[in-house]
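Internal tracking record. Fields below are filled automatically when a chain is submitted to the structure queue. Please do not edit lines marked as system-generated. If the sequence contains nonstandard residues, flag them in the REMARKS field before resubmitting.
Queue: standard
Priority: normal
Entity type: single polypeptide chain
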Amino acid sequence: MDNIVDALNNAYQEFLAAAAGVLEAKEASGGQKTIATDAALENFKQHWELFRVSCDRAEEFVESVKQRIGSECLVDEATGSAAGKSGQDVTPALPPISAVRLEQMSRAVRWLVIELQQGSGATGVSSQTHPSAPFDARFSEDAAQ
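SYSTEM-GENERATED OUTPUT FOLLOWS
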């Protein structure tokens, strides 16, 4: 995580320096368009793109951490280990399920979401499960696993 923060900070500092370079070149040219102002603008554009890439990488990292934390919390809640960790003696309303089963269901839901995002949900294909999904919740023998 530190390297992502450092890369973002460095990209930001270089972006600010490039912006300052544009202002300095513009002032030195008296507001006229010159080779120096064009070069400063091109440098600014490159650093702007690099900064955007660094921001995208940081955002992807944050999203992946959020998903991982959410998955861990979901597994803890579903398996009943959350109550044991916090020292609470809470009886869950639903019986706990295995982490493996929860992962299988999560994978199946992800495939359905992907299919819907790709537009296949409108064609009726979403009623079929993806080949890598290990169960189909419509059938009682799969739901009992």
